[in-house]
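User: My collaborator sent over this chain with a note saying "see what the structure looks like." That's all I know about it. Can you take a look?
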Amino acid sequence: MNNDHLFDIPAYGWPEELKDWYRELVFTDWKENSPERQRLHDLAHDKTFICAMQHVLTKLRKHPQWPDCLSDFLLEIVRLPYMVPTDTLGTIFFVAREGGWNWETGKLGEIEAARAELELVLAAVVNDPKAHLAPATTEALSIIKAYDPREYEAARIDIKQANSSVRVGTLDTLVDRHTADDGGSHDDSLAKRLTELAAKRCELWHDADGNAYASFDREGLVEASHREHWRIDSTGFREWLGWLAHTDLKATPASEALKSCQNALSGIAKFEGAEHTPALRVAANESGRWIDLCDDQWRAVLVTLIGWGIVTLPAVRFVRTKAMRPLPIPVTGGDLKPLWRLSNIPAEDRPLVLGWMLECYRSDTPYPVLELIGEQGSAKSTTQETARAFIDPNKVMLRGRPKGVEDVYVAAGSNHLISLENLSGISPELSDALCTIATGGGQAGRQFYTNGEEHIIEAHNPVVLNGIGAVITRADLLDRAIALCLPVIQERMTEEEHTAALNEAAPGIFGALLDLFVKTLAALPTVSIPPAQRPRMADFAQLGEAMTRAMGGKDGEFLTLYMQHRRDAIRRTVDSNPVSVACMEFVDKGKNSYTGTVKGLLDKLDCYRPNVERGDYWPRSPKGLGDSLRRVAPALRQIGIHLAIDSKPRRDGVHCELRFVGVPGAAASPPSLDHGKTTSQSSPKFTGAAGSKAKRARAAPARIPVVKM
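Assistant: Without extra context I'll predict from the sequence alone. Here is the result:
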């Protein structure tokens, strides 16, 4: 406990000698028979010192805040009874009582009485080896142990030295049993003191869902002072409470005391604290876009239309999880070329990846799902890890298949980016969950350990996943996805070489990404895609168009590339469905169209039925075909095949229509049945690195200076 503030009050009239004594009393780690202990013992016997002590306490009593200050002072004095003689303690206690200090009802009264009982036991145990086992002694020693375990150990040694036949192990058992029977009163007292201290140190608040948070300032020993924000029920905040108890209360709280403190603080935060919005890794407000660096100083990057800068005290309440790792510290004048050397993205697909990475820095728009497909040796996982290093680094950069839907939502609450690897396919339930998470939504379930309380998990996160074959097959998720096929790499790097190269290039790469983000945000208001041409992920398409213009590309280049990839992805998906394959062959080879009953279409398509090992894949009834057609209709529509089914049956059954109408903006010809990759448009021409140094200097966004906010 640091009580140097006592010396700052002139009314106390501290003599210099007494200041030195008090500092040593509080801060010295005392050892038996040490010279420091002996010197202070001699000083405490000095009558001049006793008079000075009495003089100080007399003035202390006149100060308006004397009860609190006297409490601090006396608690330190009585913790060391073997150092301060009885007559000195008596003088201190007398002056304190004169000032109205109530010993009998306070903690000091308990400690004083416990020590008096210990003195009686030390005298009695010399002749009676069981004197220390009396209930009064057990209670006294339990008080001493709860207050200062070191003093309890010293008392055990004194009892053993007074009579060697004493069994202190039995004493320990009785003291522990007394503490348990006491209902944990000492732990409760520590929890109460810790709660009061933490409530003074923290700003307690809650979010719109009632989750409790604490914000507090940290004075760093090495790093600069900063402000931290934690969920009160998190491990990080629990560890901070333990540190606070150790440094300020000189105590080591048990798990029960910490839990009680967290529960109390949560209640205060929820019912007395203000409501604020927490953020995880990225956020946006009136100042601009924020990206949490997640470093030891709790700094963040602020991105605006004119530049970016590192802010020491962000105006956003970023919360942390134990698994989060820091982003590289960005520098100006960086380059994106090292990013492509360290990842296996084909040159023509790089604008899509760049657009996806910039989209991950926004928090208020739907996120496209990035799917990386490639055979073994195509560096899918390495590419995925490299991209994540500039978005949301984590202790576990890649995760395997989740066991259930709830696991994905739990991961979404602890990560900004959901990163899954080595998937051979995903279930319909997981596909629906990823759709919801990417665009923003939630999941409801029963709260654990309750009889029916509903627990809502909200999520809005970008997603990246990889697999050897096409992982995303359901049309709803496919409509939100960017599917890229990675080629087999020709030149391999060891993991050590890749890590070293990434660490060296990371600051420049991140700085270049931020520079591009600034230019993209500045160009975004000028982008307007006609409503008829807007894809489902319209916000992403607009951001990509703005990015392309910022890099010197032409209007419409990004949208053309994006739409072509969507058609390629849909083609890979529909090729795996026998009904959609039959529909494509029907309109391609036969140059046919059909209007009539579903039963009649089943007969027509049977001629184009692909060879499948199991008949289960082919519908056996008009109803089965109707269900299959409804599932594949959105995907077929994306590649220019119109498929419509009546919602109500007519006299002769349910009617449908199947014909080729062409893709908007493409040549009016049926889709090719070549199962290879569809020929795409020429790659956009970007000019981000071209030009002289002077031109690049003029084009570079202004960097915001590092400021405190």
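A starting point for your reply to your collaborator: The longest strand covers residues 212-218.
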